[in-house]
From TrEMBL:
Residue ranges crossing the lipid bilayer per the database entry: 12-38, 44-66
Pfam family, one: bPH_2
Keywords: Membrane, Transmembrane, Transmembrane helix
Domain YdbS-like PH: 70-144
Species this chain originates from: Claveliimonas monacensis
Protein name stated in the entry: PH domain-containing protein
Superkingdom field: Bacteria
Keyword Transmembrane helix: yes
UniProt KW Lyase keyword: no
C-alpha cells in the first residue's frame, strides 16, 4: 500500500489548534491559581501551576510536529489504512466493503487553513482521515462514494441472482 503524507497546511492547522487549546488550558490554570485553589502562602501550588504551564507550552510546540510526521493514510481497492499518534501510534484499517456512510467536514480552523476531514462510518464506528487539503478530501470522498455504490450494485445483483435461482 502506498501511504500519503499531509501537506504543510495540515501542520499549520495542527499548530493553530494546539495553540487554541493551550491558551484555554493556560487560562484555566491561571484562573484556578488566582481565584480558588492556592492561597498566597502556599508556594508549592504556584510551582505546580508553573510546571503545568511549562508542560502545556512544550506540548503545544512539540506535539503537532510529531503528529504531523507520524500521520499516514493509504487507500486502495480493499481498505483504508490510517496511522496516527503522538506518544502512542494507532492504526485503523477499514475494509472498503464495510463502509456505510461517508461525510466531509470542516471546522473554522480547517477552513482557515484549507483542510478538511473525510469521515467514514462502518458498523463498528467512525474513522476519520483528517487534515486533508480540501481538494484532496473531495477527490477521496468522491472515489470512496463511487466504490461504495459499485459494491452496493454488486450486492443487489447477487441478491437478484439468488432470488431468481430460488424461483
Amino acid at each position: 500500500m502506498v501511504y500519503e503524507k499531509l501537506s504543510k497546511n495540515a501542520l499549520r492547522c495542527m499548530y493553530a489548534a494546539g495553540a487554541v487549546t493551550g491558551v484555554i488550558l493556560l487560562a484555566v490554570i491561571g484562573a484556578v491559581d488566582y481565584f480558588w485553589v492556592f492561597p498566597e502562602d502556599i508556594v508549592i501550588g504556584k510551582w505546580i501551576s508553573l510546571g503545568a504551564a511549562l508542560f502545556i507550552l512544550a506540548d503545544v510546540c512539540v506535539s503537532p510536529w510529531f503528529r504531523f510526521c507520524r500521520y499516514r493514510y493509504g487507500i486502495n481497492e480493499e481498505c483504508i489504512d490510517i496511522q496516527e499518534g503522538y506518544l502512542f501510534v494507532k492504526r485503523h484499517i477499514v475494509p472498503i466493503e464495510r463502509l456505510h456512510k461517508l461525510e466531509m467536514r470542516t471546522g473554522p480552523l480547517d477552513r482557515a487553513f484549507g483542510v478538511a476531514k473525510v469521515i467514514v462510518t462502518t458498523a463498528g464506528g467512525d474513522v476519520t482521515i483528517a487534515f486533508l487539503d480540501t481538494e484532496r478530501a473531495e477527490r477521496i470522498a468522491d472515489t470512496l462514494r463511487k466504490r461504495i455504490n459499485a459494491i452496493a450494485a454488486e450486492q443487489r445483483e447477487e441478491r437478484r441472482e439468488m432470488d431468481h435461482g430460488r424461483e
